[in-house]
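At this stage, I put together a protein sequence along with its fold in token form, as given directly below:
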Amino acid sequence: MSIQTVVTTPFADQKPGTSGLRKKVRVFQQAHYLQNFVQSIFDTLEIPANAVLTVGGDGRFYNKEAIQVIIKMAAANGFVKVLVGQNGILSTPAASNIIRKYQTFGGIILSASHNPAGPDDDFGIKYNTSNGGPAPEKITDAIFAKSKTITQYKIVDLPAVDLSTVGVTTLDGFEIEVIDAVRDYADLMEQMFDFAAIKRWLAAGHRLQFDAMHAVTGPYAKEIFGQRLGASTDCLMNCEVSENFGGGHPDPNLTYAADLVEIAYGAHAPDFAAASDGDGDRNMILGHHFFVTPSDSLALIAANAKLIPAYANGLSGVARSMPTSGAVDRVAAKLGIDCYETPTGWKFFGNLMDAGRVTLCGEESFGTGSDHVREKDGLWAVLCWLNLLAATGESVESLVRKHWQTYGRNVYSRHDYEGVPTEQANAVIAHIKAQFNSLPGQVFGSYTVKTVDDFSYTDPVDGAVSTGQGLRILFACGSRVVIRLSGTGTEGATIRVYLEAFTEDAAQQQLDAQEALAALITVSNQISQLPQLTGRQQPTVIT
């Protein structure tokens, strides 16, 4: 096998964001662009002898072509074998499972998660370490540093690998194994949940509706819900993986999963409805005419975890991202377990899980998961809810309302302003920061500002410090507003505004979240001046 060394020049824009490097497809299609970033990953790692690499992606446009390049570069850089998902498909949680199950030396995941796909849309790539989780900042910083100085990359001339057929191909001692990652993942889920109880629940006439949004979880949903749980085929929507996700926006929320929401709130609504995103790590949970916020979902799963076989012995602890509501904190306090508040990004949960400090984790962007892998996991969250419905005999709404009666309700909403010009988004952040000294003590209607800060985090396991993780406006009554810029887009900026108020009042708990938070929304706009600075009078997405 002849290794070719190709001379190249650096690109200045290969800094990984919250979940890897995301750019438009046309950027990745530039000569040497993908190769430079992959070589920067390999040059940053100390690749041991007999190392195996996991590779796969969410099936979006350019996925298969990129996999062929990565296989050739892995062979040139000392790997002895590559494990690839059949048809190049690996959901992000399934990739984490493969890395952990087969003890590979990490993996390269090709995904831009919930972002649109197609020739004119988005593509992404990230490296996950041998624990199955996203590379920590010290590694992504090193990759970026290398990308700015790279002068050459290594590749071998191999014929294209047939990704459609499960099996092993050996070329000059280098192995490429195409695996049935759907089966591996489904086997793990069947070990964790009471599939027999869920089957009985479905057989009793309860109905579910699942929307894969033409994205990666389609094959997994067919295997788990259709084959193993016996759900009828008409329960499964959009389960054929499409390179452009059917022309849709595979973000499972009330705006972009509108077809599912219409069904869940329709005249013949199912008992349970759910959706997952482009790469399978996010989820949306709906009941009969009822929406569950991601924050409430995490808290309710934690409170009822012992009903799920995998967690029958209890939880070691829980963690949430800072913008996620404090609902799970109240559960942790009652259970007598630790609760950690981290920055946004699943990589921050990895150390806590590896150290055995937490079992369940969640973040505000429809992401929930546990220590079975090191990524958030959309289908796992769906199965948690199905298991709880089967175990309790309750409806989704009944479970949530009883939870509020016990713990109180953290009324919560997230307002996303997508595609904001970067200078305008930065102006909003700068305007708030300029008020850090003057805001405390100011009164806005019934709200008195207690403190304002820019969230920072010191990892309790390795002492790593992360700063600038989101602006917090905390009020004396316990309400809060969090404003941060998302790191998952490819053009402009997404401003995320998180609004939270706690109530134990039964009447207040019945209100629609937007109605209950109306005064706080007004205060948030008054302090941030977001409408004036961006020209946006309404969010793009409200959840």
About this structure: The two ends are 53 Å apart (CA to CA).
